[in-house]
Structure to design on (350 residues):
């Protein structure tokens, strides 16, 4: 996981300090609520507190372990960097303002350089081990959804279905949910990030489920849209348009393509069928330790897709007052195309 490529073409950064929980996990494979990871070409240091001492000493390899109190934390970072002989230090710009001010004050003897793009790019290209964890998380989610959908009947509430999905994910081996599970019935499905409510399912209403499991620290992400009965002519047509747009994009995406070109594969199909103004979000995003990672696969992104990036393919059409359709799979980008990690079927009727 720790490789020399962090220090290639990085503006002469000779040490990185990562305070963010996801970046700490990326390097150490140990989940902690407090700490810092310091990476150099020759030495790697993990600073945390006494609550995690036994765990990190047992699990974390190739790191020197430093135990700190909260009061000493930023001074420990400075002392470690001084001992290493660092001069220019890369840091994440995405930390809270108070945390940055404390770090900047403690490291006033060092030159600080923003390094978020460097670590984001490194994390965007997955190893085979990471792809394996994401695939396992997806299989857990698929087993959970198949079991949860068996209880769907008129009268069930969005909240009840959400709870059943979450329960089945944990019972199937998930460490936790990758994000708040979305279950939306009827007109609520036109809200892309709807919060499950006590709305009861009526026959012939759409059921939108957006869910993900977390396994070995890695997320899955999947959306399916169903109907218990017949959703009517327009929503049936919308479903077929979204499905065809997704399938067309999946067939043509490959490494070397820009994200806006990937997005346009589905977006232009939806526009051509009269629903361009009803597709208001990006085609997809990167997935890994966090549910949203680099790259953003959207209309305004000229980011170039690279082999072994894991991205979502999730076009949608949303008609307020009627309903919405979204279908989402996860893809591994390759030189000649993509590998679809999602095996769950795409049948509208249940």
């Amino acid at each position: 996981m720790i490789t020399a490529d962090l220090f290639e073409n990085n503006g002469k950064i000779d040490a990185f300090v990562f305070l963010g929980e996801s970046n700490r996990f990326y390097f150490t494979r140990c989940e902690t609520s407090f700490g810092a990871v310091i990476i150099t070409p020759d030495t790697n240091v993990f600073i945390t507190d006494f609550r995690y001492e036994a765990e990190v000493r047992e699990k974390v390899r190739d790191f020197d372990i430093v135990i700190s109190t909260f009061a000493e934390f930023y001074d420990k970072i400075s002392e470690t960097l001084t001992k290493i002989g660092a001069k220019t230090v890369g840091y994440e710009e995405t930390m809270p303002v108070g945390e940055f001010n404390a770090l900047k004050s403690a490291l006033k003897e060092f030159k600080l350089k923003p390094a978020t793009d460097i670590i984001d790019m490194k994390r965007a290209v997955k190893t085979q081990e990471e792809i394996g964890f994401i695939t396992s998380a997806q299989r857990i989610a698929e087993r959970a959804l198949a079991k949860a959908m068996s209880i769907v009947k008129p009268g069930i509430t969005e909240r009840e279905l959400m709870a059943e999905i979450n329960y089945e994910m944990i019972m199937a081996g998930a460490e936790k949910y990758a994000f708040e599970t979305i279950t939306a019935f009827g007109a609520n499905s036109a809200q892309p990030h709807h919060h499950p409510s006590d709305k009861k399912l009526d026959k012939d209403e759409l059921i939108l489920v957006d869910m993900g499991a977390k396994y070995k620290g890695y997320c899955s992400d999947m959306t399916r849209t169903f109907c218990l009965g017949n959703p009517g002519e327009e929503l049936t047509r919308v479903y077929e348009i979204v499905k065809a747009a997704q399938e067309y994009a999946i067939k043509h995406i490959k490494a070397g393509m820009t994200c806006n070109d990937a997005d346009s594969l589905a977006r232009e199909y939806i526009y051509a069928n009269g629903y361009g103004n009803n597709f208001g979000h990006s085609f997809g995003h990167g997935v890994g330790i966090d549910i949203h990672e680099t790259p953003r696969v959207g209309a305004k992104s000229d980011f170039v897709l690279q082999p072994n990036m894991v991205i979502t393919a999730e076009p949608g059409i949303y008609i307020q007052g009627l309903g919405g359709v979204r279908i989402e799979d996860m893809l591994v980008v390759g030189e000649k195309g993509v590998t679809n990690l999602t095996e769950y079927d795409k049948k509208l009727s249940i």
Summary: The mean pLDDT is 96. The chain is about 35% helix and 20% strand. The longest strand covers residues 206-211.
